[in-house]
Structures are given as structure tokens and as C-alpha cells.
Design goal:
The protein is an alpha+beta fold and about 130 residues long. The chain has one domain (about 5-125): Dynein light chain 2a, cytoplasmic (Beta-Lactamase). Helix content is about 35%, strand content about 30%. The protein is built from four helices and seven strands. The protein has helices at about 5-10, 40-50, 55-65, 110-125, and strands at about 20-25, 30-35, 65, 70-75, 80-85, 90-95, 100-105. Strands 2-1-7-6-5-4-3 form a seven-stranded antiparallel sheet, sandwiched between helices. Strand 1 and strand 2 form a beta hairpin. It is globular and about 40 Å long.
Length: about 130
């Protein structure tokens, strides 16, 4: 399956995610993205730096995280996953061995359903070496 197919089918196609992107784990190469979803290089670097801090929850929670031009309050941050929320919408970011999954869910989706969707794809990618 292509990286774009993972975005279109395994993330957005589930109905739990409305827009998503997949980057390499360093965040400097976009492998796939849904139409109209832009994560700027500055935002990508902010995400990568959050992982470099090894889940320093206090730091990331105090500053929040920016994705697609929006600021999200960080609810969870560890060496694998970062969950952020803005009102009733949110983001789920998961790092695998070689990839960084960045997914946005709308107000109509339960955060747990969105998180499960992204985490399951991450588990699969890790299982096949990514």
C-alpha cells in the first residue's frame, strides 16, 4: 500500500479522522497528506522537538502544540504518542520507527476512536518495519 493510501484509507477513510499527513520520523519529508491539510515546517519541527524531549509533559503541556495553523492543548505526551485538543476537535500524533503520523479529528468524533485509529495504523507500520 502506498503512503497516500494509508492516509486516504487507513486514517481518513475510517471516518474517525478528517485530515492527516505522514512524514518521515525526522519530520523533514512529507510522505503523504490529505488535500488541504498543511503542517508547516515550523510546526513539524515543534512536533519533532516534543519527541526529542522524551515526553517532557510539563514542557509540551505548558506551550501547547501547533498543527495546521491551530494551537492544541496537549493532554498526553510520551515517546510514542502526543494527543492534543482544541475545543471538541483534536490531533493524534504517533511516532513509529521511521514515520510520524499526524492526524486531526473533528468535533463529531470521540477522541478515543480517533486515537485508536491512529495507534492501530502505527502498530501495523511498526510490525512491518516502519
Amino acid at each position: 500500500m502506498s503512503w497516500q493510501a494509508y492516509v486516504d484509507t487507513s486514517l481518513v477513510g475510517t471516518g474517525n479522522i478528517d485530515k492527516a499527513a505522514i512524514f518521515n520520523s525526522e519530520g523533514n519529508s512529507v510522505w503523504a497528506t490529505s488535500a488541504g491539510f498543511t503542517v508547516s515546517p515550523t510546526e513539524t519541527q515543534e512536533i519533532v522537538n516534543a519527541y526529542k524531549d522524551k515526553g517532557d509533559v510539563k514542557q509540551v503541556q505548558s506551550t501547547g502544540l501547533h498543527v495546521g495553523g491551530e494551537r492544541f492543548v496537549v493532554l498526553k505526551a510520551d515517546d510514542r504518542s502526543i494527543y492534543g485538543k482544541k475545543g471538541r476537535e483534536g490531533v493524534v500524533i504517533v511516532k513509529t520507527t521511521q514515520a510520524l503520523l499526524v492526524a486531526h479529528y473533528p468535533e463529531t468524533v470521540q477522541p478515543g476512536a480517533a486515537a485508536n485509529t491512529v495507534e492501530q495504523l502505527a502498530d501495523y507500520l511498526i510490525g512491518v518495519g516502519y
